[in-house]
Amino acid sequence: MLLNLKIVGYVILLRNIAKYQPEVIKTDDENEQAIALAEEIAHRPNKTAEESALFELLIALIEKYEDEKYLMVESSPCKFTEKSAFNE
Q1: Is residue 84 part of a domain?
Q2: What total number of domains does the chain contain?
Q3: DSSP per-residue letters across 12-65
Q4: Range of 30's domain?
Q5: pTM of the full structure
Q6: CA atoms within 13 Å, Cβ hemisphere of 67
């Protein structure tokens, strides 16, 4: 019964408050919408369990999108020589 109440609360949150249906983020615009909603939820005092769950989901979706879009390439530390900009 408790699980059903949490599901109902989550559905109400998505319909009335968030007006957002979580899904895989595919564009920068969708990412910006997700970030805006995550920021809004983060600043709410006394978050409900459903708001916290939605926040965690948004963060996971945002991180997945940004990790794929802004792929970081392994690099090695720079080697400075006597003629580097710091020694001029």
Answers
A1: no
A2: 1
A3: HIIIIII--------SHHHHHHHHHHHHHHHT-SS--HHHHHHHHHHHHHHHHH
A4: 2-68
A5: 0.67
A6: 7
Indicate whether 42 belongs to any domain: yes
**For residue range 18-52, what is the model confidence (pLDDT) as tens digits?**
567 788 999 999 999 999 999 999 999 999 888 89
> Does residue 75 fall inside a structural domain?
no
Asked whether residue 82 is assigned to any structural domain, the reply reads no
| 77 Cα distance to chain centroid | 30
Query: Confidence band (pLDDT; 50, 70, 90) for 5?
Result: low
Q: Which of 13, 1, 4, 2 is nearest to 53 (CA)?
A: 13
Return the residue matching tokens 């003629």: 83
Q: Which of 81, 67, 53 is nearest to 24 (CA)?
A: 67
